[in-house]
């Protein structure tokens, strides 16, 4: 039977049933090229905005179904002019009732003369409920192609579901106001580290300061790879993230400089990376900053150390067992960082027109310092490093930490967005995460200065000096608690010089990474990593 296809500009007619529609090549071709190219590039979760889309292919599709209710999970391969590709997950539903197709309408279509719409299925409560119930009723060791998994902690009946509606790169659904199911949008032919780490930390190590793992959804692709599609976790009621918290607190700290008319040049200094207990912080600094913020930094150090102790305490599961530095790691690290650095030089050169004043000045300094920076990246002698490498968070910053009743909860273990999935699973020195958080302190301090500069009487350079001083104290207080806890648990993160070397190396690595992130997504912020790089380079 020939399949007749009639297409008008915005409307498609197909004679296939919904259950067989994806077997129709004419439909798939039209859907991919005429509809999805336009649709996908407009989505918040689309990560290819800085590149030029060439074409989309349907890598795989699978059914998410129960009885007669059928949805498709599409795995889309987006190919770019720049000769690389990304995979995305898009679940689709056909609805004939327009009221179900108010949001995320992908295509208006008639199927066997039934008028309707193809929409992103996550908009449908029926779809969300089905996924919830399939996880709830998952059987142990599911060997089918679409696999659901449930932890023993997850036993609740379905009551409600809604979009979480926060700024994020994936799409999360809140169920029963108690659980969060994250549908991964950009996906990788492998278990997602967020799933792996969440399950490991909460199920195996009972680490309390991350949302409890409740279940997941994955598919086995045609190469037998297990691809994580969804991660269900407990919802942590919270007062916002640590980034917003820090900005709020820092605003007060910088205001105090004005209200107390503090002479910044007279404030007592401390050496960068010197461990400090809070009682060693000079009273004039406490008087300026307040005790509370130092207590918070101490608590963050405690939770970070506990996370690393849990991650570094495994002796069976090889994906998590600690290991030492070696030649292979060094070659991998240098290659990756030199490639990334070259990419950043290129990005900076191509984006100079977006920068002005201080950021333009710093960008030129960055380009002028390229040989020095490259030398620092190459200067990694593993034979001098005695500490351990473990699985780490990988994209650890204040925005990944929730604040709840004076405590912190760590989220989003997906790793650094630009790295390949295999690179994200490479064991790293735990101080790489610590450096990530230190960069975040630095970011928060500079964001406060830049956001409020008109309000302050002090000169910008004086504010930078105050900011650097504050940063040094934060780091000192953090390191004291962090290192003590880590050493008590016998996790070896290296001797003193080694720790300082790894911190400086990781700070530089992270700031270079951030420079690309900012230039591609919010060029006004590029000044922050540029300032960070200058400070790291100039620190003896
Ligand atoms: N289990 C949870 N409990 C409470 N809030 C959460 C939870 N998971 C995520 N969130 C909120 O959603 C935001 C985005 O989550 P995240 O895991 O970082 O998503 P993405 O990977 O899509 O960026 C977080 O910053 C946090 O505010
Ligand atoms: O979206 P993700 O959480 O995976 O992380 C990416 O976006 C972050 C910005 O939201 C970016 O973080 C950078 O900006 C933060 C302030 O907005 C700052 O606290 C971080 O220190 C800084 O790295 C992160 O790098 C990027 O991977």
Automatic annotation (TrEMBL):
Keywords: ATP-binding, Coiled coil, Nucleotide-binding, Transferase. It comes from the Bacteria. SUPFAM superfamilies: Protein kinase-like (PK-like) (SSF56112). It holds the Pfam family Mak_N_cap. Residues 338-365 form a coiled coil. Residues 39-121 form the Maltokinase N-terminal cap domain. GO terms for molecular function: ATP binding; transferase activity. It catalyses: D-maltose + ATP = alpha-maltose 1-phosphate + ADP + H(+). Its EC number is 2.7.1.175. Belongs to the aminoglycoside phosphotransferase family. This is Maltokinase. It comes from Kordia periserrulae.
């Amino acid at each position: 039977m020939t399949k007749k296809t009639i297409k008008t500009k915005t409307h498609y007619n197909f004679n296939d049933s919904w259950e067989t529609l994806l077997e129709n090549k004419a439909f798939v071709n039209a859907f991919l090229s005429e509809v999805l190219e336009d649709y996908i590039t407009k989505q918040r979760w689309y990560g290819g905005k800085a590149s030029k889309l060439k074409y989309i292919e349907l890598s795989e599709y699978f059914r998410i179904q129960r009885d007669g209710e059928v949805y498709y999970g599409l795995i889309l391969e987006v190919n770019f002019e720049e000769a690389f590709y990304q995979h995305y997950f898009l679940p689709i539903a056909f609805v004939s009732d327009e009221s179900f197709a108010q949001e995320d309408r992908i295509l208006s279509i008639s199927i066997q003369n039934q008028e309707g719409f193809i929409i992103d299925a996550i908009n449908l409560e029926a779809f969300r409920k089905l996924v919830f119930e399939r996880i709830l009723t998952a059987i142990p060791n599911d060997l089918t192609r679409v696999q659901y998994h449930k932890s023993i902690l997850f036993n609740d009946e379905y009551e409600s579901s809604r979009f979480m509606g926060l700024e994020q790169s994936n799409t999360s659904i809140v169920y029963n106001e108690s659980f969060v199911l994250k549908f991964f949008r950009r996906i990788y032919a492998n278990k997602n580290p967020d799933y792996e780490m969440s399950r490991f930390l909460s199920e195996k190590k009972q680490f309390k300061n991350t949302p409890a793992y409740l279940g997941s959804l994955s598919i086995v692709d045609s190469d037998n790879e297990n691809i994580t599609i969804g991660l269900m976790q407990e919802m942590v009621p919270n007062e916002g993230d640590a980034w917003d918290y820090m900005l709020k607190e820092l605003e007060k700290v910088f205001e105090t400089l004005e209200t107390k008319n503090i002479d910044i040049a007279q404030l007592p200094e401390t050496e960068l990376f010197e461990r400090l207990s809070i009682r060693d912080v000079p009273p004039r600094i406490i008087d300026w900053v307040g005790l509370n913020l130092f207590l918070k930094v101490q608590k963050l150090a405690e939770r970070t150390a506990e996370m690393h102790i849990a991650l570094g305490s495994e002796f069976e599961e090889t994906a998590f067992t600690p290991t030492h530095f070696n030649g292979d790691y060094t070659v991998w690290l240098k290659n990756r960082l030199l490639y990334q650095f070259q990419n950043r030089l290129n990005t900076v050169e191509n984006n100079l027109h977006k920068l002005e004043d201080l950021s333009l000045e710093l960008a030129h300094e960055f380009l002028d310092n390229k040989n020095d920076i490259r030398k620092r990246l190459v200067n990694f002698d593993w034979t001098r490093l005695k500490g351990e490498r473990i699985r780490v968070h990988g994209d650890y910053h204040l925005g990944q930490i929730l604040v709840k009743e004076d405590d912190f909860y760590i989220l989003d273990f997906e790793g650094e967005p630009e790295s390949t999935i295999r690179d994200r699973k490479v064991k790293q020195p735990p101080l790489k995460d610590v450096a990530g958080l230190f960069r975040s302190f630095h970011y928060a301090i500079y964001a406060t200065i830049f956001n409020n500069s008109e309000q302050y009487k002090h000169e910008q350079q004086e504010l930078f000096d105050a900011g650097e001083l504050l940063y040094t104290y934060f780091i000192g207080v953090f390191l004291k608690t962090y290192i003590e806890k880590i050493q008590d648990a016998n996790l070896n993160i290296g001797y003193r010089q080694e720790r300082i070397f790894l911190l400086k190396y990781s700070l530089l690595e992270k700031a270079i990474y951030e420079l690309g992130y900012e230039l591609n997504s919010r060029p006004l912020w590029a000044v922050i990593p540029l300032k960070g790089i200058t400070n790291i380079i100039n620190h003896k």
